[in-house]
Amino acid sequence: MVTFRDLVRAFRQLDINSSQPVIVHASLSSLGEVIGGARTLLGALLSVFPSVVMPTFTYKTMITPEVGPPDNAINYGSAKDANRMAEFFQPQMPADRLMGILAETLRQNNQAVRSSHPILSFAGIGAEDIVQSQSIENPLAPIQALVETNGWAILIGVDHTVNTSIHWGERMSGRMAFTRWALTRRGIVECPGFPGCSNGFQAIAPHVEKATHRVQLVTAEIKAVFLPALIETVQGLIAEDPTALLCDRQDCDRCGEVRATVGER
Ligand SMILES: [Zn+2]
């Protein structure tokens, strides 16, 4: 069984300067049984890192319109039933289950501040400036802010396929992004800058080895990746090969669209 003290010790061993903010992606179950569950994990993170951010995305607000811009990896008019199931974004909306229970636990914390993007919100504690830097036009601005303040991505029992920060490297490389739409109380909001698919992101692992600190805690590996180095690496890989970090699935719409724009399909 994993205790609060075990977690604190492991996070300290990552050897990160406490003035540097962190963005955390975690699989609670990867740690086996944690006494006190997600709250213990969050408490341990906050006791070592004063500034913690997590994505609290809400995909259930998404709407597929009848028509829209071309080359957008979306099948317009195809989702009438799904549109009926869409929910209005509201600040108290739980984070999507895909974000994991830790992100939802952070969102529920009294000290947490959450941004108001209707699909791609972030929540943070001790990170208000980072979270509030987000806008509809620049949904990944919190990642940019983390990079500029020498932040780290912490991956707890998960790999780079959930490492949201890699999308900022794609953006910095000029890789195409998409437009999506969300249901809000003010009507349907167009959300530009929606990132592509992350299923191919694990391919970055060997290239960021030198920028990665690791700790093994019972069944889980905890990794910390230095964000400025991560972003530089993504830019280097895409400059070398414009299809770098895309997934292999033949039917992946977003990776297919990126390949088409760089002349490879
Ligand atoms: Zn893909």
Describe what you observe in this structure.
This protein has one domain (4-261). The protein contains nine helices and ten strands. It has helices at residues 4-13, 37-48, 80-85, 101-108, 128-132, 141-148, 166-172, 227-240, 253-261, and strands spanning 22-26, 52-55, 62-63, 113-114, 122-125, 152-156, 178-184, 187-194, 212-217, 220-226. The strands form two sheets. Strands 4-5-2-1-6-10-9 form a seven-stranded mixed beta sheet, sandwiched between helices. The chain has a three-stranded antiparallel beta sheet with strand order 3-7-8, with no helix packed on it. It starts with a helix and ends with a helix. The mean pLDDT is 97. It binds zinc ion. Zinc ion (ZN) is lined by residues 197, 199, 246-247, 249, 252, 254-255. Zinc ion binds next to helix 9.
Features:
265 residues, alpha+beta, 7-stranded mixed β-sheet, 3-stranded antiparallel β-sheet, 9 helices, binds zinc ion
Give me a quick take on this structure.
The chain has 265 residues and is of the alpha+beta class.
Question: What is the topology?
Answer:
Blueprint (H helix, E strand, L loop, with lengths): L3 H10 L8 E5 L10 H12 L3 E4 L6 E2 L16 H6 L15 H8 L4 E2 L7 E4 L2 H5 L8 H8 L3 E5 L9 H7 L5 E7 L2 E8 L17 E6 L2 E7 H14 L12 H9 L4
Parallel strand pairs: 1-2, 1-6
Antiparallel strand pairs: 2-5, 3-7, 4-5, 6-10, 7-8, 9-10
Helix pairs in contact: 1-2, 2-4, 7-8
The structure holds zinc ion.
